[in-house]
Design brief:
alpha/beta, 11 helices, seven-stranded mixed β-sheet, Rossmann fold, homodimer, 348 residues, six-stranded parallel β-sheet
Amino acid sequence: MIQVKAFAAYDAETPLRPFEFERKEVGANQVQIEILYSGVCHSDIHTAKGDWGPAIYPLVPGHEIVGKIIKTGENVTKFEVGELAGVGCFVDSCRKCQSCIEGEEQFCDEGMTGTYNSYERGTTTPTYGGYSTTITVDQDYVLHVSDKLDLKGVAPLLCAGITTYSPLRYLKVGKGHKVAVLGLGGLGHMAVKFAASFGAEVTMLSTSPSKEADAKALGAHHFALTTDPATMDSLANSFDFILNTVSAKHDYNTYLNLLKKNGTMIIVGAPPAGEPLQAFTLIFKRRSIMGSLIGGIKETQEMLDYCAEHNITADVEVIDMDYINEAYDRMNKSDVKYRFVIDMASMK
Amino acid sequence: MIQVKAFAAYDAETPLRPFEFERKEVGANQVQIEILYSGVCHSDIHTAKGDWGPAIYPLVPGHEIVGKIIKTGENVTKFEVGELAGVGCFVDSCRKCQSCIEGEEQFCDEGMTGTYNSYERGTTTPTYGGYSTTITVDQDYVLHVSDKLDLKGVAPLLCAGITTYSPLRYLKVGKGHKVAVLGLGGLGHMAVKFAASFGAEVTMLSTSPSKEADAKALGAHHFALTTDPATMDSLANSFDFILNTVSAKHDYNTYLNLLKKNGTMIIVGAPPAGEPLQAFTLIFKRRSIMGSLIGGIKETQEMLDYCAEHNITADVEVIDMDYINEAYDRMNKSDVKYRFVIDMASMK
């Protein structure tokens, strides 16, 4: 057995604290990764707090993982010891359904196996995520990571990156399109980078004037203050796409009105309750709302390769493992530019 | 001036009653149509009752109009006296914006000129709809109607027909697609006919077991009772498209769950208040909701030609003009198969 040091939530209320557990020895098709950096996603907080349903405690969050291969099973052909590797939001899926066959494992008919808060397929062994020293994953669910990029900024690509990359690619967003990004956090800042990189004209929509300089530094061409009625009026019917990353309560219709005819609002954040949708707002301009969920292994690899080629990483604040509870508090106040990443060396 | 007999709503409360008014003489680019049949749309009721905002009273409803050309202006080249013709939901638009240039006048930037409850462009002369003996319209906003079809069943094509035809065409619905139709009324029965005609496998979703035989007679391949939880469970993730024609309050999320990955729910009915939309329902299968609004003149003509070629008409109950208030009452109880059409000969 492999001894692992980690940080875990033991229940919905108390702060995360140290946790030690054992992982099974590396299987024939598995690789063992020494985790170097683990990004901190809002999903980690929601899951740890039980916001999205009962959690499996102790819960070790973390699904934005980069590290180094330290062991490979006998059948492993895709990775060698010493190579850099990444693990995202899932570590397994049924491999048989249409979505799995098409490489869209995130939509697996049986449900993907989450990197944490799931059970290893067909067992009662919980999966434990990236807030730990090492992880063991089937080679088919591990990503290659380039050594050209700063690893700290690569970790968040595994969730925040692919979550915004995937719908922009699915909808073929690029040159000639006007794209608005709603919400400047972990997802929003990656959305700006990707949309701009794909050639679109990007506008950051925000309630806070202080974000204008930041948004433009990230690559946004324009900034619009959504609290100003005159600005909102002037932007009616002007965007081809809105990438909506907001998971707090907000009015969809206000933003839908900013879409052109045939425009689409992409939803990657999930407000806690259902948001009222006015049918006429869609009907009068043939507008759409589309949801999108991370990406499959194939597309995640494509995204990582694209980032290596175009020098794209997340903007991060590196923290030690024992800062995690303070980091959660700050994330709940949107006080991070734009992603916390845990330096796992701090746990050894 | 042309003397016109009509039926009008004089206010939001009292029944419709006779109304006489004058129309201007036929302009150089206009045709005068003797109205033979006028379909009765739910929009007529909503507008007459002021449900969608202040109405211009006296209000003459009716935007599913077929008749015969009885006079043409000196510049008219598209129509000759004696030909059959149709008029739908609008009689003018700006003609300059991108949508008008593309033949999608329903999305005119300045707003289309409604067949009723609007003002003739640049004037304070109200437009009066199809519950009348004659109408005068610019030739560019008039449709050619084949003499191969039963005219009574053609009238509803001008709104119920194009409203369902347009989104199915826009989304390229056809062979290999599974399509569900929600709501078996004026719109729903046309949706079944078109979707089946385009080669899709069609399921009628209904709360009423009594509608099964009717739905199948219209061309639906399957019928599903939405009040049965086991049926709904078995239909989860099974449709490529749902054409949602319901304008009463209902839960979008229940039906969105029936869509496959990448599936789209088309909304052509507008519930009175905003319906709560659960983001996760869209996110977990990359589902979409899209609104759609009638169609432009070009597409409406294409639809009428398609109907003539494929022998498609609406199923109608023909009524006399003075039955209109009873017809409204029955429509509010969904007691019509599937569209009332006024025989305008009853008014002379």
